[in-house]
Design a protein that fits this description.
- The chain is an all-alpha fold and about 80 residues long.
- It has one domain.
- It is built from two helices and no strands.
- Helix 1 crosses helix 2.
- The N and C termini lie far apart (about 65 Å).
Length: about 80
Amino acid sequence: MRPKEKILLILSSVWISTVALTSAGIAYSGGITGVELAAVTLFLAFGITVFTAQLIPGGILLSSFTGIILSSLKKTNVTVRAT
């Protein structure tokens, strides 16, 4: 296994465990215990991961569209000379 693959594996494991433990803490503080805690933890963990996976490309597209709109508006401005 190459070093980049090891780093990616470690980062993925840390991300999934952090999200799962946070989801478990939120569910447990809400009064959910037992098997339901495991189900809610998995549901929330995968839901947050999928949401984040969709949010990052969406943010990239939004910033690209914003840059295109602002750059087209900037080209239409009239230049002013200072005297």
